[in-house]
Design brief:
CATH architecture of the largest domain in chain A: Alpha-Beta Complex
CATH architecture of the largest domain in chain B: 3-Layer(aba) Sandwich
Largest interface: A-B, 29 and 55 residues
Distance between the termini of chain B: 27 Å
CATH class of the largest domain in chain A: Alpha Beta
Radius of gyration of chain B: 21 Å
Structural class of chain A: alpha+beta
Number of helices of chain A: 8
Largest sheet of chain A: 7 strands, mixed
Number of strands of chain B: 13
Number of strands of chain A: 13
CATH class of the largest domain in chain B: Alpha Beta
Oligomer: heterodimer
CATH superfamily of the largest domain in chain A: PurM-like C-terminal domain
Strand content of chain B: 15-25%
Shape of chain A: globular
Shape of chain B: globular
Number of domains of chain B: 3
Number of helices of chain B: 15
Order of helices and strands of chain A: HEEEHEHEEEHHEHEHEHEEE
Distance between the termini of chain A: 76 Å
CATH superfamily of the largest domain in chain B: HypD, alpha/beta domain 2
Strand order of the largest sheet of chain B: 2-1-7-8-9
Structural class of chain B: alpha/beta
CATH topology of the largest domain in chain B: Rossmann fold
Radius of gyration of chain A: 22 Å
Helix content of chain B: 25-40%
CATH topology of the largest domain in chain A: Phosphoribosyl-aminoimidazole Synthetase, Chain A, domain 2
Number of domains of chain A: 2
Helix content of chain A: 25-40%
Largest sheet of chain B: 5 strands, parallel
């Protein structure tokens, strides 16, 4: 009998409905694109589930769906973002990230070369973060029913004994730190979107934060919590923590790190950088006595050079987050209402 | 950021604040209205109220073009998008302005309307060029600042014979609104911080008659926090001296005559409406612009046969009294209870520049008006 040649996946085309039909086209896509890029022994088991060894500790689980337009933007793309987002959700609980699952919803018409770029970027981000993508799923939806590709990732990590971080732990007197300059991811995406047409060199800060988180945990025994200020920015994250812990906060505007290009872009568009998304920054709250040690640990890490102590937790029955402005006044940093929209005048 | 940070210097701010403290007479109150939403935003954003003596009250005026847009006009925009299936191009913060029946352009989008947020009317023109098979309507709003670009777009559309482009014109005028506020009786105002960007177009001269007729000084001020503080100092001096003239703090951008070319292009393409409903203020005579008959084919109201429906403001709403300086946001029954930025009932809560929204977002931690 003649030996059947193994067909090579043709990357010159586009995703079509056969890639999701369960037939040979789908098997080729999964085998030659996804499995080849994510290559690890658990995925190679080739079963409907990945069976992993006992992980020896409390399990942390986090899930995150990624729907972003454009798919590629300065500094990152949806692939690495899908890894960083879930790795960071695990790391903020003090967990060491171990495994990821990945669900792909592909839109008919997506260029296969774009999909390849995304998958390779995802694989690189996973390697860098030391996590294995051990199981996955692919579906194809008709043209017009997706935005190129949606990626949903779920992560599993292990939390060391003695680590008990929670958004409910902040107490009056605690110090508030951020690990670097704010608003870069959101402004990088926005500069590409909405036909803004203004040139800028702002790049997304998308990065895995687990080693930074680990350095902070080691240096700061009184660490109450960490959180990554993604959608809604620092303002939203701090309001969430204030409500969860039943406290207020007072920030010092002069201490908040915002780069000059982000400040300028926000100024131009009438946006507030404190509400703009980050994908590679963390907020940490610790006892005041440990604040300097925490700051030093953050600054010693490549992802934390611009870290700063930006304010303190205060008692406040109404859980307001306030800012002492550089101008000498004071204002409320409220929850975002609806979508962040530019002002007209 | 060079050229901006200089106008946000905290040390200078404290010096001007001290100077204001020295010249403000302790035996009286000073009630100053900043007309523009841009000033309201700067005051709230930088916490200026906290720098001023307690007897100087800043009252937030109606100068937020999104806030004062009446419900009937938003209803019209939603009809254009939903019933006439046009591509509706609009500025960002109009998307969440509440219309009849709890509708907004955001919700219209969810219901299938093709509503696109644009940064300028040039983007709307580009949409029309790129979608020749679709009708594209630019939802034009704003005071005199955003009017000249709309006027230029009308000229461009005519020159290009862009047959699928039209403008739903809702441009409003500042001096008639000031006059209307002052003519309303029981107005507790001592002076105005005058518009910044509006005045770059119309100049300072149009305020002279208003200031004279109602004996209220006006100081045109820039939108940066130091501009606002300096204009407060200038107003206190004028009030103390019994002067009711027009001062110009924003002389780096505003002349007495304004921008003649911008005025000419507006005069070529737009005409005065007999009256226009303002949310919070009611019908104000000669306070808005419509598209001139020479450009009728680009007028969305004519093209789609839109009729103006008058929809009354919410009954419990105190916006009128707040805009006249008679009440503070905290004195409104529904403030921060039924009326919040997520569920605005009245004009002042609609955009972040509105008097109530600014107080809600930035100043609620204190009982004092922001």
């Amino acid at each position: 009998m003649k030996k059947t040649a193994r067909r090579r996946l043709d990357l010159s085309g586009r995703v079509d409905l056969t890639h999701g039909s369960g037939g040979r086209a789908m098997a080729e896509l999964i085998g030659q694109l996804f499995a080849a890029a994510f290559d690890n022994p658990y995925l190679a088991q080739g079963n409907d589930q990945a069976i992993v060894p006992p992980i020896g500790g409390r399990l942390a689980i986090a899930t995150d769906s990624h729907v972003i337009s454009p798919l590629f933007f300065p500094g990152s793309d949806i692939g690495s973002l899908a890894v960083h987002g879930t790795v960071n959700d695990l790391a903020m609980g003090g967990a060491r990230p171990l495994y990821l699952s990945a669900g792909f919803i592909l839109e008919e018409g997506l260029l296969l070369t774009d999909l390849q770029r995304i998958v390779e970027s995802m694989a690189a981000a996973a390697r860098e973060a030391g996590v294995a993508i051990v199981t996955g799923d692919t579906k194809v939806v008709e043209r017009g029913k997706g935005d190129g590709v949606f990626i949903s990732t779920t992560g599993v990590g292990v939390v060391p004994d003695g680590v008990n971080l929670s958004g409910a732990n902040a107490r009056a007197g605690d110090a508030i730190l951020v690990s670097g300059t704010l608003g870069e991811h959101g402004m990088a995406v926005m500069s590409q979107r909405m036909s803004l047409g203004f040139a800028s060199d702002i790049r997304s800060d998308s990065a895995s934060l687990h080693t930074l988180a680990d350095a902070l945990l080691t240096a700061c025994p009184s660490l109450r919590l960490m959180r990554d200020p993604t959608r809604g920015g620092l303002a939203t994250t701090l309001n969430e923590i204030a409500a969860q812990s039943g406290v207020g906060m007072l920030l010092d505007e002069t201490a908040l790190p915002v780069s000059a290009p982000v400040r300028a872009a926000c100024e131009l568009l009438g946006l507030d950088p404190l509400y703009v998304a980050n994908e590679g920054k963390l907020v940490a709250i610790c006892a005041p006595g440990d604040a300097e040690a925490a700051l030093a640990a953050l600054r010693a890490h490549p992802l934390g050079h611009n870290a700063a102590i930006v304010g303190q937790v205060v008692e406040d029955a109404q859980h307001f987050v306030r800012v002492a402005t550089a101008f000498g006044g004071e204002r409320l940093l409220d929850w975002l209402s609806g979508e962040m929209l530019p002002r007209i005048c | 950021m060079k050229f901006v940070d200089e106008f946000r210097d905290g040390k200078l701010a404290r010096e001007i604040a001290a100077q204001i403290g020295a010249i403000a007479r302790p035996d009286r109150e000073y009630r100053l209205m900043e007309f523009c939403g841009g000033h309201t935003h700067a005051i709230a954003r930088y916490g200026l109220t906290g720098l001023l003596p307690a007897n100087i009250r800043l009252i937030h005026g109606p100068g937020c073009p999104v806030c004062v847009l009446p419900i009937g006009r938003i209803d019209g925009a939603i009809r254009l998008a939903l019933e006439h299936q046009v591509i509706l191009a609009c500025y960002g913060d109009t998307l969440r302005v509440p219309a009849s029946g709890g509708m907004t352009l955001f919700k219209a989008r969810a219901a299938g309307a093709d509503v696109r947020m644009v940064y300028s009317v040039a983007d709307a023109l580009a949409l029309a060029r790129d979608n020749p098979a679709r009708e594209v309507v630019f939802f034009a709003i704003g005071f005199e600042t955003t009017t000249p670009p709309t006027a230029l777009a009308l000229k461009a559309a005519k020159a290009e014979q862009l047959g699928n482009f039209s403008v739903y014109c809702n441009h409003v005028l500042t001096p008639p609104a000031m006059r209307h506020l002052l003519a309303g009786g029981d107005v507790q105002l001592d002076g105005f911080i005058g518009p910044s960007h509006v005045s770059t177009v119309i100049g300072s001269a149009p305020y002279e008659a208003v200031a004279r007729d109602y004996a209220k000084p006006v100081v045109i001020a820039g939108f940066e926090p130091l501009d606002v503080l300096q204009s407060v100092a200038m107003l206190i001096e004028a009030i103390n001296a019994g002067r009711s003239d027009v001062g110009n703090q924003f002389s780096r951008a505003v002349s007495r005559e304004g921008n003649a070319r911008a005025q000419a292009v507006v005069a070529d393409t737009l005409v005065l409406r007999e009256r226009f409903d303002w949310r919070g203020l009611g019908a104000v005579p000669a306070s808005a612009l419509a598209i001139s008959p020479a450009y009728a084919e680009y007028d969305a109201e004519r093209r789609f046969g839109l009729t103006d429906t008058r929809v009354p403001d919410h009954k419990a709403c105190e916006c009128g009294a707040i805009l006249r300086g008679q009440k503070t946001p905290e004195q409104c029954k529904v403030f921060a209870i039924a009326c919040t930025p997520d569920t605005p009932l009245g004009a002042c809560m609609v955009s972040s520049e509105g008097a109530c929204a600014a107080h809600y977002h930035y100043g609620r931690f204190t009982r004092n008006p922001t």
